[in-house]
Amino acid sequence: MARAKKLPKSLPFETTLMVRDCCLCLHMQRAARNLARIFDEALRPFDLTNGQFSLLMSLNRPQPAAMKDVASLLAMDRTTLTAALKPLERRELVVIEQDPNDGRSRRLRLTPAGEQLLARAFPVWQQTHTEIERPFAQGEVDRLRRHLRSLS
């Protein structure tokens, strides 16, 4: 039987610095939190968070969306999606309906109030996005999007 490799009792501080500088997950989380704060602030006049805006936008489609499809698009489990839908449903921005073809499934759709709120919030989202992209050289943001999609 092979001997187990002896683990160090602690890591040197240089390792911490290396992880701080190299960890993709850390840098993605920091960037995501910062972007979330920026969009949360921009969408505050509409009483929306960036997550709620994304959820409403994911429902802006010709036919009601299957809950599983929205969960997949937003990279959420169904329990998290259900919790995220509750305040939007209370505000009568979203309706959750039984799927007519499958009684176990749910369909999600925007209400007219949800459509109107999304239409009013979109120009603010668009302007905020433009401001965020401004410092980047031409093509860099599209390249970043491609890389992010490959990781998701």
Question: What are the SSEs and their pairings?
Answer:
Blueprint: H1 13-22, H2 24-43, H3 50-58, E1 65-66, H4 67-73, H5 78-90, E2 94-99, E3 102-110, H6 112-133, H7 140-151
Antiparallel strand pairs: 1-3, 2-3
Describe this structure in words.
This protein has a domain at 49-133: Arc Repressor Mutant, subunit A (Orthogonal Bundle). Helix 2 crosses helix 6. The mean pLDDT is 93. The protein has seven helices and three strands. The protein has a three-stranded antiparallel sheet. The chain has 152 residues and is mainly alpha-helical. Helix content is 61%, strand content 11%. The longest helix has 22 residues, at 112-133. Strand 2 (94-99) and strand 3 (102-110) form a beta hairpin. Pfam families: MarR. It comes from Paraburkholderia kururiensis. InterPro entries: HTH_MarR-typ (IPR000835), MarR/SlyA-like (IPR039422), WH-like_DNA-bd_sf (IPR036388), WH_DNA-bd_sf (IPR036390). Residues 21-152 form the HTH marR-type domain. This is MarR family transcriptional regulator.
Unreliable residue runs: none
What's the CATH superfamily of the domain at 49-133, by name?
Answer: Winged helix-like DNA-binding domain superfamily/Winged helix DNA-binding domain
Beta-strand portion reads 5-15%
Strand count, sense and barrel status of the largest sheet are: 3 strands, antiparallel
Q: What top-tier CATH class of the domain at 49-133 fits best?
A: Mainly Alpha
Pfam families: MarR
Organism: Paraburkholderia kururiensis
Domain HTH marR-type: 21-152
Protein name: MarR family transcriptional regulator
